[in-house]
């Protein structure tokens, strides 16, 4: 960044706060100041965006192409934030639009708005920044690629399960706060559609990975649903629509109250597991017992799982045995899954009903098998060697079968049963559904029934508001027109059945869904930016 220009611009607007940490120069342009206070002396932030103030002009390079853009940072997007930093967003606008220019056939009126969230592990999400280094060390990240293609980027920070209010007292980011914030950010953009220098608020595309993928799916499925209204009012969100155009969801950790069953339908019989390093740290940070006596690292700041850092979050090398109780509940959960799947009446593209018998076999299982077969076949067709995947059967250069019984041992289990709603309330999800005093809660009937101690159940409305399945096809919410859902073929943070069920339910409700399980991908996102942007271009430019 050009420091001189930055300081000058900031001084002109009178909104510069500077601090020195050692030799490091840190400056923050505070775009939104409280404009007044209410009767209880609480700050009120303006919902009116002012494009004339508090920006910097920046440039970065993508594939040798210089990308110039204007950056507005730390824009508070609600009138009554619980945590100002966590309810602010960054808005980046390609410079060409300030001269009425065109990029990639888009004008300032037609430029789509790319809206990535940085949520992982149900932790607070930071506002994304354009970067020349992508998450996978292979070129620009999604925000910078978006700018290079003429998209406006609106990147909100979002409250998460460890967010404490600006009052320093209560936990203000427990469920359903993250979806309330994402909606509020959409409403802020719509409220300012005539004040924003560029961007078509009817072409908002969300993007997220893992818990952030779940969030992106929720935003895409719950447009304008009235159930969220009291929460939006409480934080002073703009009174606008919050439906979006399209939703991109990488490995969504979603449908949490049914994810335990799906996990055991897949992994029952594998009785050892390898946790992710972020889980060990998360448990240690929260003073929880770490299974297998593994060392967590107490005292480290809470950190979201680094789903994007590599193909897979780093896994512990230590194999941990499931307890007798965990093995017993695995069977209970596995046996409960068919009734859930059958209740959904899902159909494939040909209209065949996808069901399971009491042993967990049937057309739904064949459908899942087909997804893995397609993934392996595509890899083979691209010339990749799939022979190390013992569960894939190849004959004469064709994938002829996938052994779903052999898959779980090969992929390995990451989570003991129950995978999500832990009997001792130790999971990230128990924390996400926790109380304002940080007490974790249950969210699924089976775990609650099994639990002999004191764990409370989250209230049913909160559980409802966290699951996109409750809003698809019921006519009471506006669903995004387009979805792109990815879940890697070796991802075992949740079972493939979970994103598959989401994709099928959307497809059965006449939504355009692009769902795929990429070969050799673990729990990660943004690993296929050329394809992601091809998809975005195709839906934005369709006549
Ligand atoms: C994430 C991963 C998990 O395995 C989980 O249970 C919750 C969140 C994540 O990477 O965001």
UniProtKB/TrEMBL annotation:
Domain BD-FAE-like: 147-260
Signal peptide residues on this chain, from the entry's feature table: 1-24
InterPro entries reported for this sequence: AB_hydrolase_fold, BD-FAE-like_dom, Tannase_B
Residue numbers spanned by region Disordered: 290-318
Keyword field: Signal
One Pfam family of this chain: BD-FAE
Highest rank taxon of the organism: Bacteria
Key word Signal present: yes
NCBIfam families found in the cross-reference section: tannase_B (NF041556)
Name this protein carries in UniProt: BD-FAE-like domain-containing protein
């Amino acid at each position: 960044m050009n420091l001189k220009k930055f300081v000058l611009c900031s001084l002109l607007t009178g909104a510069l706060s500077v601090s020195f940490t050692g030799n490091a120069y840190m400056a923050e342009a505070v775009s939104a100041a409280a404009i007044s206070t209410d009767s209880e002396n609480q700050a009120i932030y303006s919902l009116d965006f002012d494009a004339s103030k508090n920006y910097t002009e920046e440039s970065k390079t993508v594939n040798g192409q210089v990308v110039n853009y204007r950056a507005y940072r730390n824009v508070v997007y609600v009138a009554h934030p619980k945590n100002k930093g966590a309810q602010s967003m960054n808005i980046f606008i390609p410079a060409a639009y300030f001269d009425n220019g065109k990029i990639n056939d888009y004008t300032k009126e037609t430029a789509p708005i790319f809206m990535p969230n940085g949520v992982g592990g149900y932790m607070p999400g930071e506002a994304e920044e354009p970067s020349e280094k992508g998450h996978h060390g292979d070129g620009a990240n999604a925000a910078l690629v978006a700018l290079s293609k003429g998209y406006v980027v609106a990147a909100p920070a979002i409250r998460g399960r460890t967010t404490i209010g600006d009052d320093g007292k209560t936990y203000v980011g427990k469920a359903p706060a993250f979806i309330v914030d994402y909606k509020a950010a959409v409403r802020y953009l719509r409220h300012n559609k005539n004040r924003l220098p560029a961007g078509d608020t009817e072409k908002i595309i969300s993007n997220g990975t893992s818990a952030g993928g779940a969030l992106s799916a929720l935003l895409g499925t719950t447009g304008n649903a009235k159930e969220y209204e009291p929460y939006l009012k409480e934080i002073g969100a703009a009174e606008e629509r919050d439906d979006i155009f399209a939703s991109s969801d990488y490995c969504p950790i979603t449908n949490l109250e049914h994810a335990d069953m799906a996990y055991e339908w897949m992994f029952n019989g594998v009785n050892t597991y390898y946790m992710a390093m972020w889980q060990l740290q998360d448990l240690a940070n929260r003073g929880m017992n770490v299974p297998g006596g593994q060392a967590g690292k107490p005292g480290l700041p809470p950190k979201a799982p680094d789903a994007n850092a590599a193909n897979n979050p780093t896994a512990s090398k230590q194999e941990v045995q499931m307890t007798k109780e965990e093995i017993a509940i695995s069977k209970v959960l596995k046996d409960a899954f068919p009734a859930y799947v059958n209740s959904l009446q899902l159909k494939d593209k040909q209209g065949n009903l996808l069901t399971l018998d009491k042993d967990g076999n049937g057309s739904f299982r064949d459908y899942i098998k087909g997804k893995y077969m397609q993934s392996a076949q595509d890899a083979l067709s691209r010339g990749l060697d799939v022979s190390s995947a013992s569960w894939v059967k190849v004959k004469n250069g064709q994938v002829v079968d996938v052994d779903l019984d052999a898959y779980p041992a090969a992929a390995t289990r990451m989570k003991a049963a129950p995978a999500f709603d832990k009997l001792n309330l130790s999971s990230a999800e128990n924390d996400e559904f926790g109380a304002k005093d940080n007490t974790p809660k249950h969210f699924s009937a089976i775990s609650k029934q099994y639990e002999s101690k004191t764990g409370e159940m989250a209230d049913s409305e909160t559980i409802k508001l966290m699951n996109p399945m409750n809003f698809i096809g019921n006519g009471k919410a506006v669903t995004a027109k387009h979805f792109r859902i990815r879940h890697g073929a070796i991802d075992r943070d949740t079972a493939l059945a979970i994103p598959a069920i989401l994709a099928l339910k959307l497809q059965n409700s006449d939504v355009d869904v692009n769902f795929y399980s990429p070969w050799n991908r673990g729990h990660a996102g943004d690993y296929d930016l050329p394809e992601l942007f091809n998809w975005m271009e195709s839906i934005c430019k369709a006549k």
